[in-house]
Write a structure and sequence with these properties.
With 118 residues, the protein is an alpha+beta fold. The chain has one domain: Nuclear Transport Factor 2, Chain: A. The chain is 26% helix and 50% strand. Strand 5 and strand 6 form a beta hairpin. The longest helix is centred in the N-terminal third of the chain and has 13 residues. 15% of the residues are buried.
Length: 118
């Protein structure tokens, strides 16, 4: 079995989001993934995650710029910026994400931004 490189998986995640390759994106996560965003309900499981990216994500086209990425064991911390569109308006904001790995996939993800909803 091939060893999973958490940094590569996380970078692949941002590329998949930006390219709207949601099947590839969902495959990077554990079946029972939990994705938390402050002030919003947690997303649980791959089916909910897929639904969020297909129908529920308020951000429209855009791209992530990763400024810092730190791997510590099974956790990858990322700091960066996003520029794109939300509700027809141009947006740009900073984010910090934490990705926790189990068995080679992202099992938990936490996102923090200076916006109310992303």
């Amino acid at each position: 079995m091939t060893e999973v490189d958490p940094e590569t998986v996380v970078r692949d995640y941002y590329d998949a989001v930006d390219d709207e390759r949601y099947d590839d994106l969902v495959a990077l996560f554990a079946e029972d993934v939990r994705y938390e965003r402050p002030g919003q309900g947690a997303i649980e499981g791959r089916a909910e995650l897929r639904e969020f990216y297909l129908e529920g994500r308020p951000l429209e086209e855009g791209s992530h710029e990763v400024d810092d990425l730190i791997v510590d064991g099974d956790t990858v911390a990322v700091r960066g910026t996003f520029a794109g569109r939300q509700n027809g308006e141009d947006v740009a904001f900073a984010f910090a994400d934490f990705h926790e790995f189990e068995d080679g996939t992202i099992a938990r993800r936490y996102s923090f931004t200076d916006r109310d909803e992303v």
